[in-house]
């Protein structure tokens, strides 16, 4: 898509006209750079800079980096806010709002000291703006509709121009009907690389944003007014098993950066390593001030980056530690059925509903392996298969795959880890000592839990307590 100068000025309205005569840089903005668009939720190769200072480009999980053009000494980008169809994982798509064909929008990458000019075209059914979270910029470029600029009307294009004063980890999102527009998936990552190519440099640099959606089984559009009870917990609007693995060569210096635009905090946990918080949306953490972690809590509206050296090969689980956030759509009002024998009831229900499957008697792990008929466009609650069986996850879960001998820039999924002999947990086949354990009647009590009647006002029986006192 190209615009003549006449069209551009017409589309941008009087703001840009006035601006063009006031700020010299703007006279160069006579045409709009093409707005690249992405059709797939497939990780695109990192965009290595062809001009300007050298940097190691980031990898956006299931995403891409927005191409730019140089215009004089301005780096020009073009974002289009628009309705999109996003595949959350194979088997489910959602009708969201995003930028340039996907939600989240493309990652913007630039360098400290760059002057950026970002065109924003509004193809949504309502007005919007973009706020550049964490950037130090003139108040009028901050993107808060009504406060620092008029909202961008439907069909219009606005221009943001600012100097990237510092390197770091940032994001962008609307500040216009914000609750709805973010509930619909409008957000994107913004990385500013250091001017000094050697500063805190890593070999692999992954980015993702956390978003939560409430999409009823069988539906396509999120319930935008939901405040707390979401059922799709996403990284870059993807859920496990649809989230790209983070593929890393042994010995690489690795950085993982993330931001949180959901309504709750996410304790992000990685197995197999300890690591240090290296950067927040406020700036770089001095190396001598960083403390070790294995879980980093990321509050709402925060961004965190952590660094590690990938010296421990393997398939390392990487996930939010809130266990409800590693599941796909589920009801949270289901009863606990552990120990309840539902065989008789199931027989009767099957006469009416032939597909009925009783669940939860022994726990809920059977849900990960079962093939239950699901409504259209719905993902299983717990799913994914590994080399040893069902992984029983969903939502905010992926795998960091550290392998020997990967070429630089090779992000292809290497398959499952080949564990060296003698390094996998195994079944004990020798004798097991008969130690005193829960008495058989506890199990029986548990099996008959459906028969226990607690009279109103009476103290519920504490089975564990009873067992301890035996
Ligand atoms: Cu979480």
From TrEMBL:
This is FtsP/CotA-like multicopper oxidase with cupredoxin domain. Residues 92-196, 220-333 form the Plastocyanin-like domain. The keyword Oxidoreductase applies. It comes from the Bacteria. Keywords: Copper, Metal-binding, Oxidoreductase. PANTHER family: FI03373P-RELATED, MULTI-COPPER OXIDASE.
